[in-house]
Amino acid sequence: MKVVLSLGSNLGRRFQTLQGAVDTLFDAPGLEFVRASPIYETDPVGGPGGQRPYLNAVVVAETTLAPRTLLERAQSVENAFGRVREERWGPRTLDIDLIVVGETVCDDPDLTLPHPRAHERAFVLVPWSKADPEGALPGHGPVARLLEGLGDQGVRLRDDLKLQRPD
Ligand SMILES: Nc1ncnc2c1ncn2[C@@H]1O[C@H](COP(=O)(O)OP(=O)(O)OP(=O)(O)O)[C@@H](O)[C@H]1O
Ligand SMILES: Nc1nc2c(c(=O)[nH]1)N=C(CO)CN2
Hints:
The chain is an alpha+beta fold. Helices cover about 25% and strands about 30% of the residues. Helix 1 (about 15-25) runs antiparallel to helix 2 (about 65-80). The radius of gyration is 15 Å and the shape is globular.
């Protein structure tokens, strides 16, 4: 089934973190890379003020894994990349959200699918629409239509950066 993952980083070496996360996510069986979106620089949504902008991207994949197994893999990659090494207890540098996993609908706080805030987040929808123009969010409709209703949330293409296929 199809999986859509949202990756974001706003601390440390943001691009290297995203590429490392992609390489590691696909380094085990059960998850096959299909396509990565372009990279966007985005204004932080929510959280404390004064944060650096994020780099965000969306990755489309195919999986035979159960949604919870995917969540565990995403969290272990967050743990591997998500901390600034030189700073003990430093802030997280990587967020990986499961946006959709096939047609799975799940309302557990530990795993809510589709992601409950994806439909209102330009930092998810803009890259997703580039990686997967036919994409749709179950319960909300086509990504292209969701985007029409969103204001400009400060999402800027970084065409100087490009994710490579995982090695
Ligand atoms: N679809 C999902 N993808 C990733 N994590 C999820 C999902 N649904 C629920 N979670 C849970 O959310 C928790 C992550 O919380 P965290 O504080 O990192 O949220 P966030 O990524 O900062 O914010 P947001 O959930 O708004 O994107 C994890 O413990 C995870 O179990
Ligand atoms: N621009 C941007 N803002 C965010 C992001 C993100 O990836 N990009 N992730 C968040 C928690 O998942 C909260 N806010």
